[in-house]
Amino acid sequence: MTTQHRAPHDHAARRDRARAVLADRAATHLLVTDPVNVRYLTGFTGSNGQLLLAADAADDRLITDHRYDERAASSCPDLERILDRDPLGATLSAAPSASLLVEAEHLSWQQGRDLTARAEDVGVRVGDAKGVVEALRLCKDDAELARLAAACRITQETLAWLFDDVVVHDRSERELAITLERAFIDAGADGVAFPSIVASGPNAAIPHHEPTDRRLQPGDLLTIDCGAEVDGYHADHTRTVAIGHLDDELTAVHEVVRQAQAAGIAAVADGVTGGQVDAAARQVITDAGYGAAFLHGTGHGVGLRIHEGPSVGRGSAATLRDGMALTVEPGIYLPGRGGVRIEDTFVVTSPAPPRALTDTPRELQVL
Amino acid sequence: MTTQHRAPHDHAARRDRARAVLADRAATHLLVTDPVNVRYLTGFTGSNGQLLLAADAADDRLITDHRYDERAASSCPDLERILDRDPLGATLSAAPSASLLVEAEHLSWQQGRDLTARAEDVGVRVGDAKGVVEALRLCKDDAELARLAAACRITQETLAWLFDDVVVHDRSERELAITLERAFIDAGADGVAFPSIVASGPNAAIPHHEPTDRRLQPGDLLTIDCGAEVDGYHADHTRTVAIGHLDDELTAVHEVVRQAQAAGIAAVADGVTGGQVDAAARQVITDAGYGAAFLHGTGHGVGLRIHEGPSVGRGSAATLRDGMALTVEPGIYLPGRGGVRIEDTFVVTSPAPPRALTDTPRELQVL
């Protein structure tokens, strides 16, 4: 795998941090059901795995099934396994007379009601530990930052190659998306962080456009929003470039977005809210008269999920802290004509300016 | 896109079939929250979209947000849209004094409790419509079968190319996985149905092995489990081949699995249960003394999800019907030595034998 040379994750230390919720809430167990949270706390990556976290680390259990027994043994050798296709039943057996916390946003309504009924039968109390593991995931540790940086480096270098060395004129959006995604893999990525957005001409007015067979034409804006994934960590990076000569308004719009991003970046610091970062970027766009054409929030956290905390949208009260990773990506979208978005991934590193994990030049590039 | 030449989906007809649940349950609305069910009923593919199905088709609404407004307008022009970041609030506003059914397995426990509390405030009754859309999805219509067949054809042709024209000796599992997945895209796939399993030597004993840097060696078994995705429809296809000369037991094990699959295929017919198909395949493996080494169910339904109904596992009471698509994929796994799995995707077409959408030769191939 591509990650052998990187610092290993310290999953046991992360579990110990999560364990604090048990004392806080006078509970005996936490059942972690979200696959990304399970990966964060154990390293296990199969599609069926739950972590039953106990007050005593020696009682922690990974609940999976036979298909994943060998993978679990190799990826989390320090965890005892329970192989059972009924994880809720296994949990109630492993934690009798317990006070059990669950991730209410990561169990279905049906599972929650089922668990409640079965727990009552065996005298287990069930409580909600919403967002506990997500909160731990906000600030990235060194092992995580190394992977995020690797994903971002591959993304930036590949995008630079695409813009510099690939003839994009007369290529279709779909061809460019495929070319880019293959190059991520060639460069050592484990996959793509999300389906690439390649939006040209009027399609660039659609923030989440799916690549089509439309071919690039002179006068187009071209927005590419893409990212590599390395060992589960996601990069997120967008540039809008011009294909040949651009009309004056679109050129001016690009400059507005560039200044909006700069204002957003300048606002990022430990102690600031996501809403303040959003407001700083949004003000520039509103002042230029394009407020209604900025259709989304200024950014979002990024890590094991492409979208995670902290929220960097309008009115977000989430407080940024050193070590958090987030995007700053204002945009302006003009239906029928095109759009501009400029996006980079940063790590909060006060009092210094945020560390840019992607740093492609932000001035308008003409291909 | 690759699908322009294929028969279009008749989403309105599917919605009318789903609407029958409202009369059956004396309800006024059904809120469809599972993204795959939303795609099935509307064609919408964004990450945020819910369908509010009403008793009168003219009152059907797609609930999404600004980012997806243009995509929704082009992919489901026949549906009015509500743009709202709070779909539960939008639902309660659009359906006041209603009797609302929801997909309890596709809302989180937290969302379900939130909805119940807010519905009570406005006098809306909430009921559970578990599995209603999934039941409609079981039998595939012609538009779906065309896409499944296209995905399977690409998969089979690409796998044949890999086995026939690519030198696999001394290549790593990971290299082969990447080579295969790129070739899917070159052949017109929209993506891969799931991360390919390429498992060699002792790794072939792990049913859901992730490709590693292990290089293929003479005497290895090599299992490749892969599929292309076309317009949302998934292929699922596995072959185990020999790298050079194989020891006698592994050769014999391959033949047992081949006969088990033949028995499973022969059992597939309208009116038969998934459990009966599983039992037919399992009996051959048990009779050969390897019952404990068959670690999973014999198969599963396949369509817009790689795993969906009908269940074709041990004891499954799901009744097969003409038009259902399913895999038959018995396997034997010998820890430390290797394993064999043979898998094809079929459509139930009684009284004829099931139609094989993948049909790579099933005899042991030696590379």
Bulk shape of chain A: elongated
CATH homologous superfamily grouping of the largest domain in chain A: Creatinase/methionine aminopeptidase superfamily
Terminal CA distance of chain A: 36 Å
If you consult CATH, what is the topology of the largest domain in chain A? Creatine Amidinohydrolase
Low-confidence stretches of chain A: none
Helix content class of chain A? 25-40%
Task: List the chains of the largest interface with their residue counts.
Answer: A-B, 39 and 39 residues
**Count of distinct strands of chain A:** 19
Biggest sheet strand order of chain A reads 4-3-2-1-5-6
Quick structural gist:
Two copies of one chain form a homodimer. With 367 residues, the first copy, chain A, is an alpha+beta fold.
Account of the protein in words:
- The structure is a homodimer of 367-residue chains.
- The first copy, chain A, is 35% helix and 20% strand.
- Chain A has 367 residues and is of the alpha+beta class.
- Chain A has two domains: 127 residues, Creatine Amidinohydrolase, Chain A, domain 1 (3-Layer(aba) Sandwich), CATH 3.40.350.10; 215 residues, Creatinase/methionine aminopeptidase superfamily (Creatine Amidinohydrolase), CATH 3.90.230.10.
- Chain A has a six-stranded mixed sheet, sandwiched between helices. In chain A, strands 7-10-11 form a three-stranded antiparallel sheet. In chain A, strands 8-9-12 form a three-stranded antiparallel sheet, with helices on one face.
- In chain A, strand 5, helix 5 and strand 6 form a beta-alpha-beta unit.
- In chain A, helix 7 crosses helix 8.
- The longest helix of chain A has 24 residues.
- The relative contact order of chain A is 0.11.
- The model of chain A has no long low-confidence stretch (mean pLDDT 94).
- The interface between A and B is large, with 39 and 39 residues.
